[in-house]
Design brief:
435 residues, seven-stranded mixed β-sheet, four-stranded antiparallel β-sheet, 35% helix, 15 strands, alpha/beta
């Protein structure tokens, strides 16, 4: 194999990997053979060196959040009938799967304040892109306006989707860590199919969408609202209550672990009148010939089922197992439980921000559970991050890692119900000493 691909030895094959990550032969001191118990013991001991959200204090967000997952969620999705039967092609033998999806849709529509939900998308970024495509179909206009305060990954994927189509993709620079609706509204013209904003935005800002709703009505374009942490809508106004035509985002906060970035859950909801232009599929409730309740795929406007030119998208499936996890979580938590999670998440951020030392500032305005902390310079920020890491605290995301245009003195910080007052006190103590 080495000869075929033109390299002389194994070391040359891995030459692209920096030398500092190479392991010398024999340095791992692996025994020739171990018992099964010995292997488990060895790797368990090694794994204890890993630092993660379960054995440290965690203040990371940026689109993926550390929420508590009740044990019942893993139990339900581990059952064979849910774990394997994720695609209900034959409704007569997929009633359990279809009902789980139907209940999921109902709860998501209620939580977002929207009329209808589909049976999920792959994840939030492609859901945002599909919303732009749907708005173009509905309005028969081609220009998409994107607020610069939308998650950079959602923006990037949407721009990529639209790059091969006619029409314009206009991204509005906010100029700050928040959303300037005046700038967004100024970018709307008669060719605009939709305006996409995030609420709460990428920086955690919460703001009034009423001016944008009025501007969209005047221009006859759609208002698309994206979100990253849907738990917010157990506390603040939902997209539907704010007048969204389409609301899309991530359902990861609903009982789905971070999982190194996936698999996660894309959510897609809209007003009833736009239902037939919605991508993906919709499960519905009906009655059979004997009057018995039954669940079916009411709408499935995708290429596998209808002619390509009639399809709303080429999405092939949905995150069925993740939908079941989310439905189980929402059922377990109920309105009161979701409200408790949201209040604790928001209160933890308020507690942190209200006690910041003078050399650190937080972004202005109302926020849900995420904000940007700004330091005097990058050296001060990095000193703090190093000190926090030594104390087993994941203190935040250097903003430039996600938003490349950001300078090196900003930190994106998030809190959830998993952050306790003692964690905040330790965080603040390190801020004080690591100036």
């Amino acid at each position: 194999m080495l000869e075929t691909i033109g390299v002389s030895n194994m070391a040359e094959l891995f030459s692209d990997i920096p030398g500092e990550f190479h392991i010398e032969k024999g340095s791992l001191e692996i025994a020739d053979a171990l018992s099964e118990a010995g292997i488990v013991r060895k790797f368990t001991k090694a794994s204890e060196k890993n630092r993660n959200a379960t054995n440290s204090r965690y203040f990371l967000g940026g689109g993926t959040y550390h929420h508590f997952v009740p044990a019942v969620v893993d139990y339900i999705i581990s059952r064979g009938e849910f774990l394997t039967a994720y695609t209900p092609y034959q409704p007569e033998i997929s009633q359990g799967t279809l009902q789980a999806l139907f209940e999921f849709q109902t709860m998501i529509a209620r939580l977002t304040g929207m009329d209808v939900s589909n049976a999920s998308m792959y994840e939030a970024a492609t859901a945002t892109a599909e919303a732009a495509l749907m708005a173009r179909r509905v309005t028969r206009k081609s220009r998409v306006v994107m607020a610069g305060s939308v998650n950079p990954r959602y923006r990037s994927v949407t721009a990529n989707y639209l790059s091969r189509l006619d029409g314009e993709y206009a991204e509005v620079d906010m100029g700050r860590h928040g959303t300037d609706l005046d700038k967004v509204i100024a970018a709307i013209d008669e060719k605009t199919a939709c305006v996409i904003v995030q609420y709460p935005d990428f920086y955690g800002s919460v703001y009034d969408l009423a001016p944008l709703r009025a501007a969209c009505d005047a221009a006859r374009c759609l208002m698309v609202v994206a979100f990253s942490d849907i738990s917010a809508f157990a506390l603040i106004e939902s997209p539907g209550a704010m007048g969204a035509d389409i609301a899309v985002g991530s359902g990861q906060s609903l009982g789905i672990p971070m999982g190194f970035g996936g698999p996660h859950l894309g959510l897609f909801t809209c007003k009833q009148k736009y239902l037939r232009q919605m991508p993906g599929r919709v499960c519905g409730l009906t009655s059979d010939a004997d009057g018995k309740r039954g669940f079916v795929l009411t709408l499935s406007t995708r290429e596998q089922h209808i002619r390509r030119e009639k399809a709303t998208s080429n999405i092939c499936s949905n995150q069925g197992l993740m939908c079941t996890a989310a439905a189980t979580y929402m059922t377990q938590m109920g309105d009161a439980g979701l409200g408790t999670v949201a209040r604790h998440s928001a209160a933890a951020l308020h507690s942190l921000v209200s006690q910041l030392p003078g050399h650190v500032t937080a972004a202005h305005g109302a926020h849900y559970n995420e904000t940007v902390l700004s330091f005097a310079d990058q050296q001060a920020r990095d000193r703090f991050l190093k000190a926090a890491q030594e104390s087993d605290i994941f203190a935040g995301i250097p903003l430039e890692q996600i938003e490349t245009a950001a300078d090196g003195r900003h930190l994106l910080v998030a809190t959830t119900e998993m952050v306790e007052e003692a964690d905040i006190n330790d965080y603040l103590a390190i801020l004080e000493v690591a100036k």
